[in-house]
Design brief:
Elements (H helix, E strand, L loop, with lengths): L1 E6 L4 H13 L3 E4 L10 H13 L5 E6 L3 H7 L7 E3 L3 H9 L5 E5 L5 H13 L6 H17 L2
Parallel strand pairs: 1-2, 1-3, 3-5, 4-5
Length: 150
């Protein structure tokens, strides 16, 4: 599995920790930046990671900023991206099982490293259930198409 991972300065430390965690799980982490704790703009890095998901070059993405909110807002502006901000494993499970989320967002200033690893593992290990949930994903995709043609 190939996972795009990105952060801004506020999420840099947690991004580095989660990269190592992914490698320990034998997963390929594609680092889309940032590369330090120097102040930067989260939309630039969210876009890089989400482009890989859009292009099929990554199976999913993990985006980390201070709260996860900015990354989530940015990612959800992009066609075909279903980003979910998760602060605990329950939400991570159901956003995969029911929403087929392809981007996980987390806040480094609100989620500790141990919990972040649990959230990430749950997100990666939970399959999409399909069925009635697919109908809802299709409606989201239809709304997205109509919104882009306004």
């Amino acid at each position: 599995m190939k996972i795009a991972i990105a952060s801004d300065h506020g999420g840099f430390g947690l991004k580095e920790l989660l990269k190592k965690h992914l490698e320990e799980r034998q997963m390929e982490a594609v680092d889309c930046g940032t590369d330090s704790e120097a102040s930067c703009d989260y939309p630039d890095f969210a876009e890089k990671a989400c482009r890989l998901v859009q292009q099929g070059a990554a199976d999913c993405a993990v985006l980390i900023c201070g709260t996860g909110i900015g990354m989530s807002i940015t990612a959800n502006k992009m066609t075909g991206i279903r980003a979910a901000l998760c602060g605990e494993p329950f939400s991570a499970h159901f956003t995969r099982a029911h929403n087929d989320a392809n981007v996980l967002c987390m806040g480094a200033r609100v989620t500790g490293p141990g919990l972040a690893e649990m959230i990430l593992d749950t997100f990666l290990d939970t399959p999409f259930e399909g069925g009635r949930h697919q109908r809802r994903i299709d409606k989201i995709a239809d709304l997205e198409r109509r919104e882009h043609h306004v």
